[in-house]
Amino acid sequence: MENLPQLEPISLRPECEPGYQKESWKPTWKCYCCMDTGLVLDRLSSQIIPGFSSEKHKTLLCNASGCKAGRDKVSPTLIDEGNFDTRLSSEMCDRLAQMERKSWEDYRYHKHQLRKKALGLVEELAEKKSVRRVTRSAEEQERAEERHLDVVENF
Ligand SMILES: [Zn+2]
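Above are the sequence and the zinc ion SMILES. Below is the predicted complex in structure-token form.
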């Protein structure tokens, strides 16, 4: 076998990286309509075009306000040749982006609630334990004082 130099693998997604914490993850893209690819997400396209299928229909070009991916990342030649569906207005893309953002926020909120609930249980347990510890040390204190009194009274 050839002695080839070895490379470290590069994770495809952040959740594949070691030490990754699910709860701290949030979307890194700016445009929720196209995830900064310039091409509208299939699931969003089907909200506008009933029965949309990326295999049968032209992909929608993102035209969201503030999103330049449609212009910067997609070849103008391919657009000019009519390979994409360019009918979406900025307003439509913005509405789709808003829907997508909301669903991500709901997802993150839901995850956050679950995490808070789990943390709450942990705290509750810790509190119970610490109360027991305080009780124990109070008892110990009492016993220590009794012993002290014994010593004083029997002096
Ligand atoms: Zn976009």
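The chain has a mean pLDDT of 83.
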